[in-house]
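re the bet — no i am not wrong, look at it urself. input seq straight from the record:
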Amino acid sequence: MIPTAEDCFQFMDRYGMLDNIRAHSIVVEKVAGVIAKGLIRAGEDISLEKIIAGALMHDIGKTSCLGSRYDHSKKGMEICVANSLNEIADIVSEHVIIKGYDPDGDITEKEIIYYSDKRVNHDRVVSLEKRIEYIIDRYSGGKAEICARIEDNFKICKQVEEKLFSRLDFEPEDLESLVK
């Protein structure tokens, strides 16, 4: 089942999603919605319902993972599966690191959520460069190996950006004003 936006907010309540994570998820949904609607106008065959639900639910496992080393995207996928939300479980599980990315393949809902999440820092739309700075500062602990993994992930995100925007009639820099 693909949950409605109302369902997603009920899941946020049920799983005790913190207000700041909820605010982030709402902005990610707005970014993803702008991108998805533009891609649909361009003729892409994607599900707006899956994108809305995937964006709102992408961090559903984050609150319960705070203070632990448990992967919040894996926890989110487990929550989705436990609630028969199989249609968005892969989107939630791959919003941090996308698996099997195909730069020449069809545009997918999980690419849109993966990218949109990288464009939102807390509850503000930012450039990929600003977001990577924040993530390295917040999560690398100054360790070169972790910095390199984060940078590699953002190289893939940059490829996803190029793929998405090759079909859109606006630029990545326009997202902030389009979301407002």
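see?? The longest strand covers residues 120-121. told u. also Residues 5-179 form a domain with the Hypothetical protein af1432 fold (CATH 1.10.3210). so pay up
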